[in-house]
Design goal:
Layout lengths: L2 E12 L2 E12 L3 E5 L6 H9 L6 E6 L2 E2 L5 H7 L1 E4 L11 H7 L14 H7 L1 H4 L11 H13 L5 E5 L7 H16 L3 E5 L3 H7 L2 E6 L2 E7 H5 L2 H8 L2
Parallel strand pairs: 3-8, 3-9, 6-7, 7-8
Antiparallel strand pairs: 1-2, 1-4, 4-5, 9-10
The structure holds adenosine-5'-triphosphate (ATP).
The site of adenosine-5'-triphosphate has 10 residues, from helix 1.
């Protein structure tokens, strides 16, 4: 079926300092891929470069069969790249319902579900109870669910999550992982940045490790599980 995303030779700098060096990633349709690495290794920057939120110095990004490198973020989003950003990015002064409606794109994504406010509330029943509450009134876990719901409302071809379980209680984290497992089972392609390696080993098909802006390792979950030296060298595990 081909890849939903193929990025090659991605180099990015902030002013004088280069933070990505020929980074690459491939995501097959329906694949769950993780992007791993310690703090400050370039994961968020890589995702921003793929999304058109950070300009790239060189490299190519094929998304859904189109070259999107250099295109603005709203064009790439419209093609179906959805993001749950670090820090969640919800509107604090809009209600839960308004937050969801704000990103809605009624179209067929890569899943059998066409996401509407109702299907998001069915995925996260807790959010339905908070329908009229402002974004700022929600707990951290509820905000995270709302951020995922917002991204699903775009009916994406690829969903990217940057540290979606950070700072959440174990039970809520578990709920987020179950949600991602369900989305994967329904055929959504996912790219996930997260520090919790154990659930990632269970869920992800393949992994990429970034170290100082370079992809230093890639492989599947059993290869990573069988490489304790890689995990301790690059992930401090
Ligand atoms: N806006 C910016 N201006 C200058 N340097 C930046 C900027 N954003 C990030 N950097 C630098 O780029 C490097 C990569 O940062 P990035 O946030 O992409 O890493 P990360 O792997 O996502 O880390 P974290 O898990 O801490 O978010 C770091 O050295 C960081 O200090």
């Amino acid at each position: 079926m081909g890849n939903v995303l193929t990025a090659k030779n991605i180099s990015v700098r902030y002013g004088a300092s280069q933070v990505l060096f020929d980074a690459e990633i491939e995501i097959g349709r329906g694949e769950f891929v993780s992007l791993l690495g310690r703090n400050g290794m370039g994961k968020t920057t890589f995702v921003k470069a793929l999304m058109g939120m950070k300009s790239i110095e060189s490299g190519s990004v094929f998304f859904c069969g189109q070259q999107v490198a250099g295109k603005p973020d709203y064009v790439i989003a419209r093609l179906g790249m959805g993001i749950v950003p670090e820090g969640r990015g919800i509107f604090p002064n809009l209600s839960v319902n308004e937050n969801l409606v704000a990103t809605a794109m009624q179209r067929k994504g890569s899943m059998s579900t066409i996401w509407t406010v109702d299907s998001v509330y069915e995925l996260f029943p807790g959010l339905r109870k908070r329908i009229q509450n402002l974004g700022s009134d929600l707990s951290g876990g509820e905000q995270q669910m709302l951020a995922i719901g917002r991204a699903l409302m775009t009916n994406p071809q690829l969903l990217i999550l940057d540290e979606a379980t950070e700072g959440l209680a174990p039970l809520i984290r578990h709920e987020i992982w179950s949600c991602l497992a369900r989305l994967k089972n329904e055929g959504l392609s996912l790219l996930v940045i997260d520090k919790n390696i154990k659930p990632m080993l269970g869920l992800a098909n393949r992994h990429y490790i970034l170290e100082k802006g370079r992809v230093v390792w890639k492989g599947n979950s059993s290869e990573l599980s069988d490489s304790p030296e890689i995990m301790s060298k690059y992930l401090s595990l």
